[in-house]
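Handout, page 2. Input:
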Amino acid sequence: MFSGFVAPTDPAEITVFKSESANTIYLEWNPLPAEKLNGRLVGYALAYLKVDDIQDYKNKLTTVLYNRTSPRNYTFVGLQPDTKYFVGVAAYNSLGHTFPDDKSHWSRYAKQVFTLEGSKQNEYRKFRCIKSREFDLKFLKHNLGVG
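Output:
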């Protein structure tokens, strides 16, 4: 149903949210149903906020306007390592988007994700992988009678 007088009414549903490095968060989302758009879709407003900054939501929220309707994925870059963030997606039309002006939105609709720890995390993963391979190799040699 098109009213033409308001911005889209609901946030988009985030389907994938993950940190692929110490400084990034990757998102994918579903399109907002046509009846919630209130007009022609122009793009998406993507936002992130450090969980620790929730009390200062209005000053700390970072919003990126994604002026495309597809693909529906985006990577936030330049984030802080080992930090918990809220992430959210709102569709927008010619009248704007509707990220609510209250912090309760973030606890109800936004997703929470930690960025990775950076080099410490990668070194730990490499160490675990090497140790795991050494164990697997010893296990195979012992059980197969090789070596």
